[in-house]
Amino acid sequence: MVLYLIGTGLNDERDMTLGGIELMKAADKIYLESYTSILSQRADLMKYTNGKQLIEADRKMVEENCDEIIEEARNKSIVLLVVGDPFCATTHSDLVLRAYEKDVKVEVQHNASIISAIGCTGLQVYRFGETVSIPFFDGSWQPSSFYDKIKANIERGLHTLCLLDIKVKEQTIENMMRNRPIFEPPRFMTVNQAISQLFILEDKLKQSVISPNSLAIGVARIGSSDQKIVSGTLCELSDTDFGSPLHSLVICHPDLHLIEQRFFEIYRKK
Amino acid sequence: MVLYLIGTGLNDERDMTLGGIELMKAADKIYLESYTSILSQRADLMKYTNGKQLIEADRKMVEENCDEIIEEARNKSIVLLVVGDPFCATTHSDLVLRAYEKDVKVEVQHNASIISAIGCTGLQVYRFGETVSIPFFDGSWQPSSFYDKIKANIERGLHTLCLLDIKVKEQTIENMMRNRPIFEPPRFMTVNQAISQLFILEDKLKQSVISPNSLAIGVARIGSSDQKIVSGTLCELSDTDFGSPLHSLVICHPDLHLIEQRFFEIYRKK
Fold it and tell me: Are residue A100 and residue A122 in the same domain, yes or no?
């Protein structure tokens, strides 16, 4: 049989593909990954399981029970639902790799991902350099590799898509030490938080990568009926309310092309 | 009313989203863009039009009748079906921009695009630099900007996704001059042709970007049941038969990460 990795797209169950729905209905068992997502899709997806349970799979579960899931797929039809496109997280690549190495068949149903959907800002998708992730700073833990990558992208005339941190099922150190299964409420980085971290790094590293006048576009809930796209300077966006998650941020190359400029004006903070 | 841009995904009608199907069924009029695609979806998509025609829209049509389509959308529900994700071609950005500027509402149904689906090669999607397009050389017309971009990506430790040229509804210069609506058969660049063009540029520019030993991954028909992924050196891939279109090519950064290496071995040309 087969291990199916099915992308669920950007938002709700209307983003599922026909092929994905078919496979879900026919599957013996369905896992839903819960560590890169906000799970707003869960209830809606239940409509298409033919009465089967939707088994929540957090990162630990997928990583630790990886071999078990693969063994199940040897004789059964196993679905793992993944938010966005299945290959945009390393954990899934690792799962697929192990399945291949054990000669278990893997099939993928691709779906929309923020990596291409970000084109809805009007910025040309081919003009993006390396995508970066901005993690929540924690006290003195302030990694800066994303700052260097934004710098390198700008030097090459490119925009940068910044994916903002998601903390789901995190434990405090105390709870972890005592092995207590108590989890902190999920946290999703806002555009505002991302900008303030960028300012902190600029203050510290002083490479003139980021300034209050840098052009940027903040987005929230892309692809949903209440998506929000606002362009402006980082200073302007730093107090813009983007509402509920998920948020992403684009740091634009300062020289926008003509079409990009016109989109930028349309989305400009009023 | 609304102008809906609906992504059709990578292959057949099973890649359509539920939301996209709903909108197609309810639409007053449906256009299907025919210039970035191979139209293999056409017959299948007809199942979901509720008896409406699927109006073929080539690039000329979308560009020249842009204002007309937008005016239609002022009072009707107009769908434009676009292969992949709607914002991956500049023509569509231009259409959306004009609609916004005329105060006509636009909604987008995103879908899978090769830009994120390329992750199925096992290369990390975040480790890709700027995407390039390789156009068919024509006599002495041998543009080389993609060669420079591959070079810049490698220098920064990044892979390069090369989208290969598609020529649909092209006219000979003679037919164009005489205004005869006679079109050449569609042409799709193969992985082999792309590689031979890369070798031509290396011979000419001698920047040591491309060599017969460069690591690369060729892909064809990604997301379909007969997709093909083959990794190897450019020399090995230069005579690999990838079958029918569409093809794409990844020029890898020579230092693959550990997981990337293991995928590379799995897809290695035997």
Answer: no
| A150, A251 Cβ separation under 8 angstroms | yes
- Determine the pLDDT at residue A36: 63
Domain containing A250: what range? Answer: 115-267
Q: Which H helix or E strand runs over B32? A: strand B29-33
Q: What is the CATH number of the domain that holds A93?
A: 3.40.1010.10
B116's tokens: 């994120």
pTM of the model: 0.92
- Give per-residue pLDDT as tens, A108-119: 999 999 999 999
Residues on chain A touching B162 (C-beta within 8 angstroms): none
Average pLDDT over every residue of A102-107 = 94
Query: DSSP string spanning A133-183?
Result: EEPPPBTTB---HHHHHHHHHHHTT-BEEEEEPEE-S---HHHHHTT----
If asked whether residues A144 and A230 sit together in one domain, one would say: yes
ipTM of the modeled complex: 0.91
Residue A38: the pLDDT is 61
Beta bridge partners of B29: B78
Query: What is the mean pLDDT of the segment spanning B170-196?
Result: 89
Residues of A (161-220) whose Cβ lies below 8 Å from B: none
Q: Which one of B62, B85, B112 terminates a domain?
A: B112
Annotated binding site of A for S-adenosyl-L-methionine: 10, 85, 113-114, 164, 247
